[in-house]
Specification:
mainly alpha; 10 helices
């Protein structure tokens, strides 16, 4: 009978625990306010155990934001093929909503923590946000175009950031409002 190697399961579990713990501690104390000792003490692991999985605190942050970053890249690749029609803009807002809803806690960390914004992953995520905004405003945007795009993104982001909000339950109405702002209706 073939044996299954399960030696990587505890390692993967420890890595996931470190990431979840980091998300909570970064949210509570900020990125700069969270030490390696704090990251390890609450998990009853040694700093060496953390360094087995991550080379630095920045690597922990990179691991935490990897899913949001990778899914944002995929999202941006999809909308590069969109036009500026009402249907395309609505679909882009729908996909943006789903992207943020899937990882709103990490998005909130990156958006609200200035120290994270100036890390390499923070720079990359901000560049992705600028690319999406550039798509929304279109070529040669007016001041009104810029305001509508900012308003539409704000409707989605701020709605999702509300504690206790159920993303799946309110998706349709939030995206409809965001599109209304975007289309100025």
């Amino acid at each position: 009978m073939a044996q299954v190697d399960t030696s990587s399961e505890p390692a993967a579990n420890t890595k996931n625990q470190i990431l979840e713990n980091a998300r909570q501690l970064f949210a509570l104390h900020g990125y700069d306010g969270t030490s390696i000792r704090q990251l390890t003490a609450s998990l009853n692991i040694t700093p060496a155990a953390l360094y087995y999985h991550f080379a630095s605190k920045n690597d922990v942050l990179e691991g935490l934001a990897a899913k949001l970053h990778d899914e944002s890249d995929a999202f941006l690749e999809r909308i590069r093929h969109f036009g500026q029609s009402q249907q395309d803009l609505r679909e882009a807002l729908n996909q943006y909503y789903d992207l943020l809803a899937d990882d709103i806690h990490v998005f909130r960390l990156v958006y609200n923590d200035a120290a994270i914004q100036f890390t390499p992953i923070g720079h990359r995520l901000r560049a992705q946000a600028r690319e999406f905004y550039a798509y929304l405003v279109g070529p040669n945007p007016s001041v009104e175009d810029r305001m509508r795009a900012a308003g539409a993104v704000g409707v989605i982001r701020l709605s999702l950031e509300q504690r206790g909000m159920e993303p799946a339950k309110h998706r349709e109405i939030i995206v409809k409002r965001a599109f209304g702002v975007m289309a100025d209706v």
